[in-house]
What we know:
The chain is α/β, with parallel strands linked by helices.
Amino acid sequence: xxxxxxxxxxxxxxxxxxxxxxxxxxxxxxxxxxxxxxxxxxxxxxxxxxxxxxxxxxxxxxxxxxxxxxxxxxxxxxxxxxxxxxxxxxxxxxxxxxxxxxxxxxxxxxxxxxxxxxxxxxxxxxxxxxxxxxxxxxxxxxxxxxxxxxxxxxxxxxxxxxxxxxxxxxxxxxxxxxxxxxxxxxxxxxxxxxxxxxxxxxxxxxxxxxxxxxxxxxxxxxxxxxxxxxxxxxxxxxxxxxxxxxxxxxxxxxxxxxxxxxxxxxxxxxxxxxxxxxxxxxxx
Length: 284
């Protein structure tokens, strides 16, 4: 597939079903009609998809030039050493299904801090993520990108600096920069400061290099937050919580990045993704 900036939703949104579509197998055709070029499949509640279904989705995605990624189960917590085998199997199952589709980007929430100190939780995640990579290689699964996501609550491992450290473990680990989540942790900095997003992108480049940054996975949405962080998603029209997409557009074009940009707006993900794409395309 041609390298370009790709836009799409996280899963099938309300409009998909309102227009009479029923199965994710139909999603690539629907997305293509909308002018979109990406989709993130949600395995967030588990990997119940059959291999046959995965193959059919992949065939349709290639037919309509849709870049697929997937989101691993929310249950994963690499801070807990005793649950390593379960965590590994969830990641492996997702990557196997992605492989059957013919794609390789898997988004992962790595951990809750839980009862650990921040330092101990991060040390556990670092060691266990390295073990995941080693075990995948030993199991013959080597062509993948683990996209480690920035989180929106202070009680989770996943601020920008932590994600960058985890990306240094292996060349196949890249950041999934969720700007809605980052804005929650920064308590609205993107709404106040138009330079904040370029500054973060410069920091990430300085930590992991331009080659990894070029492939970055991005989530974009407006998120309602409290002093504890993320509460719930809203839409990019929500004037109380949304922030300008233009600073990120400028960085992508200036640095020559080719990310996948997934919109996670409440209920209208595909429609908001199209608006982001149109804004990107119109910017000069």
